[in-house]
From TrEMBL:
Membrane topology: Multi-pass membrane protein
Residue ranges of the TM segments: 7-26, 46-64, 76-94, 100-122, 134-155, 161-186, 207-225, 271-294, 300-321, 333-353, 365-384
Domain of life: Bacteria
Pfam families cross-referenced by the UniProt entry: MFS_1 (PF07690)
Native organism: Lacticaseibacillus paracasei subsp. paracasei Lpp225
Keywords, sorted A to Z: Membrane, Transmembrane, Transmembrane helix, Transport
Subcellular location per the Swiss-Prot or TrEMBL entry: Cell membrane
The keyword Nucleotide-binding appears for this protein: no
Protein name, as recorded: Transporter, major facilitator superfamily
Taxonomic lineage: Bacteria, Bacillati, Bacillota, Bacilli, Lactobacillales
GO molecular function: transmembrane transporter activity
Cellular component per GO, a single term: plasma membrane
Length: 397
């Protein structure tokens, strides 16, 4: 498909700004939880649900988004998802617990649109720049998410919760406006080329299940570690500030890997080396934290290792969606399937880790569980790397 320079520019900006909205609405909430509890009367037992609800929505909405993309066109479907995302963000501004929950549900559905459709859109619109465009949105996603976590608390202190939520909703406004302009630059036929396409039953492919397992395990580990590492480090003897700094290092250190993995994957044996690197990062980091003694410098190294591994694991999943499929339709279908299965699994992670720690009183057991799940993910990665595509021939579709 030929595009003019204007269309290419708008699509590139759109991909970046859509990426900016794919984690921010979730990562901005934890610093606001004390205010939400006090202002809206949110029970402490439900506080974690504000993170779990989007993950469950990812699981439920992803296959629906993939079907809509294949039938109505990926670009048009993403536009609809961004409208829903913005509606959810604006709804959360209303000082009501019901509006907060309803808005979070809509946000989960809207984010699913970007999660599922962006890899397919990049494969279709930029077949010769897949690595660059994938890095653009994944790095923007991680950077804005991290900034959101840091700035949400500061804005809340200076102003109030409603102004903070309204300020961050502007990111959704910009994302929707730019994507709408990008959509208008596309030929109508190109923008809606999925209308006559039947949905692809990727669940019939064994390789698709391995990719779903890999995606689920990396999501499980990321959200579990993000939730519990600060408490783990405090239990190991670090102050609350030091533990928070280590958790921030874990989150930020994934961005260089997120940026580089799509390019490394283009090299010979790049995917294989990446799978090995992800395994070593998680395993060495977790085993390092198991070593007694609260040495801050060493724990910075361990946080870096696990953070880089986590960022690389997410990025390589996007690469799997693109490289293990024949076209954008298969990419959207595989992305929707893997994220549906994977996020359902991931939603259990923080709760399961908390239950195990409470039941046993052991933080070490969580680290050993991390090692075990990492090794399972490593095996899945090796199997995925050894196979070419989810459907080896068109006859198998």
């Amino acid at each position: 498909m030929k595009k003019n320079h204007t269309s290419t520019a708008w699509l590139t900006w759109g991909i970046m700004l859509v990426g900016a909205n794919l984690r921010l609405p979730i990562t901005m909430i934890p610093p606001l939880l004390p205010t939400i509890k006090q202002t809206l009367g949110l029970p402490a037992s439900m506080a974690g649900m504000l993170t779990t609800i989007p993950l469950l929505m990812f699981a439920l909405a992803s296959p629906l988004i993939a079907k809509m993309g294949n039938r109505r066109g990926n670009e048009w479907s993403l536009l609809v998802a961004l409208v829903i995302l913005l509606a959810g963000s604006l709804l959360r501004i209303i000082p009501s617990l019901t509006a907060l929950i309803a808005g979070t549900l809509l946000i989960g559905f809207g984010i699913s649109g970007g999660n599922v459709l962006l890899p397919a859109i990049i494969k279709d619109q930029f077949p010769h720049a897949i690595g660059a465009k994938t890095s653009l949105y994944t790095v923007t996603m991680g950077l804005i998410a991290s900034l959101g976590t840091g700035l949400a608390g500061l804005l809340n202190q200076q102003f109030n919760m409603q102004i903070t939520l309204a300020a961050f909703s502007l990111v959704g406004v910009f994302g929707l406006l730019v994507w709408a302009l990008a959509f208008r630059t596309l030929p109508k036929k190109a923008a809606r080329q999925g209308v006559q396409r039947k949905n692809i039953a990727v669940s019939r492919s064994m390789l698709a299940w391995w990719i779903a397992l890999f995606f689920g395990l990396q999501s499980f580990l990321y959200y579990s570690l993000l939730t519990w590492l600060p408490s783990l480090w405090q239990a190991a003897g670090f102050s609350q500030i030091a533990a928070g700094n280590l958790a921030t290092i874990f989150q930020l250190s994934g961005m260089p890997a997120t940026l580089s993995i799509p390019f490394i994957a283009e090299k010979r044996h790049g995917l294989l080396y990446s799978v090995w690197g992800i395994m070593l990062g998680f395993v060495l980091g977790a085993l390092g934290i198991l070593i007694p003694g609260a040495n801050f410098g060493l724990n910075v190294v361990y946080a870096l290792l696990m953070g880089v591994a986590s960022g690389a694991a997410f990025a390589i999943c996007i690469v799997f969606f693109q490289k293990k499929t024949a076209d954008a339709y298969e990419t959207a279908s595989l992305s929707g399937f893997a994220q549906s299965v994977g996020y359902l699994f991931a939603a259990v992670g923080p709760v399961l880790y908390g239950f195990i720690q409470t039941a046993t009183g052991s933080w070490d057991l969580l680290l050993w569980l991390t090692v075990g799940l990492t090794l399972l993910m490593f095996v899945a990665g090796l199997i995925i790397n050894a196979n070419h595509r989810i459907f080896p021939s068109k006859a198998n579709r």
